[in-house]
Amino acid sequence: MIETQDLTRRYGDTVVVDGVSLRLPARSFVSIIGANGAGKSSLLSMVSRLLPASAGRAFVDGLDVAATPGDVLARRLGILRQENGIAARVTIRDLVAFGRYPHAKGRLTAADRAHVADALAFLDLEPLADRFLDEVSGGQRQRAHIAMVLAQDTDCILLDEPLNNLDMRHAAGMMGLLRRAVDERGRTIVAVLHDINFASCYSDRIVAMRDGKVVAVGPPEEIVTEAVLREVYGIEVEVVLVRGYRTVFFYR
Ligand SMILES: Nc1ncnc2c1ncn2[C@@H]1O[C@H](COP(=O)(O)OP(=O)(O)OP(=O)(O)O)[C@@H](O)[C@H]1O
Ligand SMILES: [Mg+2]
Description:
6-stranded mixed sheet; 4-stranded antiparallel sheet; 35% helix; binds magnesium ion
């Protein structure tokens, strides 16, 4: 389970995450939506300890992240950042193997190698495994970074815009894979998504943010509505039920 209590981040006088209190249950798929600059990445960064909070606290499986050693936290929580600054002269296989570091501490066991092989296979990366990151496409690089996070094999997985650069097939495949990780392996997944229709089809609940605050939390039936989307994004859309899923349409 992931919990935040009044979590806040300021830069100078500007508050970018403003007293966010959330309880995200274990074994669920939670999407975070909101406009550019709403504070989504800052929130995930604080939960994963990449960014210190200005105030408030975050807990992962009851552990206060500010007081938990990095290696202990890294065995429970993995994060895909929105931007990945990993050096280009690393092969995809080595990048994915980095995901095992919190477990292996540099010396991979047979079990670690099996996790790496699994993650490469899951993400269609076997044919590319020995290529360097600067020798593959943007979407292939994105899949490699997600494979690294999955190889870490943590109960909680935070993904900041996992669908970036993915084509339609790989985006749909990714959402299906994440859904199965929740349903079959009991993971807790929190993903920042800009595609509301994917959020609508695959999430157990959606957290909608605006100006650093959570303006609504609930199942897709409550969040994917014309009124909430108007409040969150300030635009008019039409929401239609398609095969039981609330689907957003825009009109020119
Ligand atoms: N280092 C920083 N110094 C000052 N302001 C910052 C810093 N990092 C982020 N911000 C500001 O904090 C706000 C929230 O940024 P954040 O990256 O959390 O937004 P986001 O919801 O993830 O947006 P996007 O959808 O564009 O990724 C933005 O207004 C941003 O300009
Ligand atoms: Mg962001």
